[in-house]
Structures are given as C-alpha cells and as structure tokens.
Amino acid sequence: MRRIDYDKEQYQDYARGRALSEQQLQVWISAFEAVLPERRPLAGLDVGSGTGRYTPALARAFGPVTGVEPSVRMREIAQAQSQHPEVRYLAGSAEDIPVPSGSADYALMFLSWHHVQDKPRAVRELARVLRPAGRLLLRANFSDHHPRPWWLEHFPRGFEADASIFQPLHEVIAMFTSAGWRVAGFGTVTEPSSGTRADMLERLRLRTLSFFAQLSPDELEAGFRRLEQAVAADPDAPAPVFSEPLLTLERSWHMSIG
User: Is pTM, for the whole model, over 0.85?
Assistant: First the structure.
C-alpha cells in the first residue's frame, strides 16, 4: 500500500469527499450504541479522527471524546469545522495515543487501521488507554470480507487493488487475541444510500479514498471514463448500498500492558 501523506494530499477535499448524511451518521451511531455499555457518559477516543466526521456525533451520543490524528492539516480542519463542547483534538496515532492509561471506555477506529504502520505496538497502546472491559470498535475492511462498492468494477484491478490494502479478518483477530484481547462481536452495517449515482461520482472525483492512491494515472483515467459512462446512463438512480464490516474487541481485565 502506498502511504498517503494527509498533510500534502487529500486534506483539502477530505471532508467534502467523505461527507455523511445525518441518516448515515445515525445508522453508525446506533451500531456503536449496540455494542457499548448502556451507562452514560462514556469517555471515548476517535483514533484516526481525520477531519472529525464522527467525533462530535460520538460526543452527543455517549459523552466526552478525544480525537487523535497525526495529520496537522486534518486536525486543523476538524478543529475549525467539527467542534463540540465535549470534543478535543490531539496530535497522536494508534501507536502513540496522548492520553493517560485506563482513561477511556471505548475507542473507535473508522477506516484508519490500514494506515497503522506498527500494528503490534498499536494493539498494546490501545490496551493501555482503555479501561478493563473497554471496547475497540474497529470499522475496517478486510481482504476476505470486503464490501465491494459498486463503482470498483469500473476501474482496472479495482477489487484487487482495493482488497490489497487490507489484512484478512483472521489475521487481525489473531493479532489482537494473541495479545490478550477477546472478540466481543463481528457483524455488518448497511449504510443508507449516499444519494444518486451522479452525487457519488462527484465525491469520487475528489479521490479521497486510499484506493485511488494505489492506481497509476492511466488506470485512474480509464476507470473514471468507464464510471462516467455508466453513471451517464442513469445519473439520478440511487447509489447502491452495501454492508460494511464492524469488528468489536474487548480489553481483558487481566491484560498485561507493560
């Protein structure tokens, strides 16, 4: 996977390219609520918070949230556009989370796990910051449990290039369970349509998905040409929905984090 420097690329268009409708946001908050404790407030972490597209919603639903994001530019946008009285944004990463040990009830990593360079270290660091029985909500794609969005088929090597970014599910689970975590749940969430096919094409043109960084300029040109032709046939048709995986992991009461 080619690493993306969000301080040099994508940050200007990321919030617009990855925007969620209120309905889509509420579907995800409901999915998180189903696997988190009922008590409120809960202290949360949004690890890889980007421009803060989930962070304020987490605070409204569950309690105070710290967004942790390595990109200066992405944090600046989050601080300007995704504010909430119970949200703060800090410089950090999954391998180096700048909060005290045992201070969070849950952590969300939404499509950020594939960016983590030192995954074993991140597994230990996430265990450090969570309280015993704290939960990690890992919304990640997995090479063997891939949602296959409809537009991928129009790009050369589309599915192959996208799946290559992600680990298989069993590998991720083994990495966590070997360090003392347990699997609390695995399921899929069907996100409502993102609008029309034409709406989706406009967002895809901003190229704010990791997938686009894996293709050559020729592959990008060919893919967008095919996609534009397909959308032109029925631009007002609703963009198809697909089911997205959510893995919930629980920190052991007796886990060693030294």
Answer: yes
